[in-house]
């Protein structure tokens, strides 16, 4: 095992053995040079969404933050699927997160901290990344959040 695999185990994080099946005509992740670009990942657990609805009305910000964490875990599964091991990751470059938001909800950045904190916990300094947190009217399958990442690897 490598340092990242050991760190994931130490944190008690379970990375799915493969990325979720696409819900359309795309692949979960693409390699270009030394970068992996993931498709947007929803917070699926065992093939199902744990909750649905808009953040700020049907879903609390705290629950949405946890869902962003789950989406980041699923994004890491997509990365591992195409490069074989997360031990090859040298840097998390960018995180883009979408939050299905009630019109009066303005805490998208706090929701996306769920993904960012997980990546920092796993990768340390290499997990510090740029990020966009975007509020949207609706997401696929009425998911509260969606996360995509760009990863550099060796």
Kindly summarize this structure in a few lines:
The chain has about 150 residues and is an alpha+beta fold. It is built from 3 helices and 7 strands; from the N terminus they run αββββαβαββ.
Question: Care to describe what's here?
Answer:
By secondary structure, the protein is an alpha+beta fold. It has one domain: RutC-like (60s Ribosomal Protein L30, Chain: A, 2-Layer Sandwich). It has three helices and seven strands; from the N terminus they run H-E-E-E-E-H-E-H-E-E. The protein has helices at 3-11, 61-83, 108-123, and strands at 29-32, 35-38, 44-45, 48-49, 89-100, 130-136, 145-153. The strands form two sheets. The protein has a five-stranded mixed β-sheet, with helices on one face.
Q: For this structure, what is the CATH class?
A: Alpha Beta
Helical proportion, percent range: 25-40%
Report the CATH superfamily: RutC-like
Uncertain parts: none
Number of distinct helices:
3
Query: What is the CATH fold-level name?
Result: 60s Ribosomal Protein L30, Chain: A
Beta fraction: 25-35%
- Shape from CA axes? globular
User: Judging by the overall fold, what is the CATH architecture?
Assistant: 2-Layer Sandwich
Radius of gyration: 15 Å
- Main sheet specs: 5 strands, mixed
Strand order of the largest sheet: 1-2-7-5-6
Summing up helix and strand content along with how strands pair, one would put the structural category as alpha+beta
Distance between the termini: 16 Å
